[in-house]
Design a protein that fits this description.
Strand order of the largest sheet: 2-1-3-4-5
Order of helices and strands: HEHHEHHEHHEHEH
CATH superfamily: SGNH hydrolase
Radius of gyration: 16 Å
Oligomer: single chain
Largest sheet: 5 strands, parallel
Number of domains: 1
Number of helices: 9
Helix content: 25-40%
């Protein structure tokens, strides 16, 4: 019972495990992902990386490619992410693996490789989780366990309060300008404490 109360108190106060590379000296924030990062459905300048860039004092790079699976993203990790000397890499990936019915084991293996290579480069990893599936998310438990093992910051279900509100959506999957603003604000609230080098 005491252990449960301690865990509950940590959760309620927002405390969590240490983030790997919390002392990163990188010089950019790279947003790495699929159409949710690329900004499909947004008008020019209203994708979430552009909006995020208005809030912080580091260059924010949009490395989103619509339709990318985790395998696609892994292939372009060096050229599109690591060459930019990132301090933080924000990932939105996994949805296309689900839609293309990629084996879950392959998706998890790709995500693990992506996270480990980013960490080896000295950057922090932030995973903006996208829950998939109408009747439940088959990836979610394993994904969250992976995030915990890798000591990264997980932002739970980044589309909460967006995907079920027509006024925030461009189509059934993607936000519109207002939805991307909510997404950007949510990400900023989670990462603002990582923008300094204090441990």
């Amino acid at each position: 019972m005491t252990k449960f109360l301690i865990i509950l108190m940590l959760f309620m106060t927002g405390c969590q495990q240490p983030i790997a590379n919390r002392d990163s000296i990188g010089t950019t924030v790279v947003c790495f992902g699929d159409s949710l990062t690329a900004g499909y459905g947004a008008s020019a300048g209203h994708d979430y990386p552009s909006l995020l860039g208005q809030k912080i004092n580091l260059p924010v790079i949009n490395a989103g490619v619509s339709g990318n699976t985790t395998a696609d993203a892994l292939q372009r990790l060096d050229s599109d992410v690591l060459t930019h000397n990132p301090k933080i890499v924000i990932i939105t990936l996994g949805g296309n693996d689900y839609f293309h019915q990629m084996p879950e084991a392959d998706t998890l293996a790709n995500m693990e490789k992506i996270m480990e290579r980013i960490k080896e480069h000295g950057a922090m990893v932030v995973w903006a989780e996208v829950q998939v599936g109408i009747l439940g998310d088959p990836y979610i438990d394993d994904f969250r366990a992976l995030a915990n093992r890798e000591h990264i910051l997980l932002i739970p279900n980044i589309l909460t309060g967006i995907i079920d509100r027509p006024e925030y959506k461009y189509d059934q999957i993607h936000p519109n300008d207002e939805g991307y603003k909510v997404m950007s604000d949510r990400i900023y609230q989670h990462i603002k404490g990582l923008l300094s080098n204090s441990i």
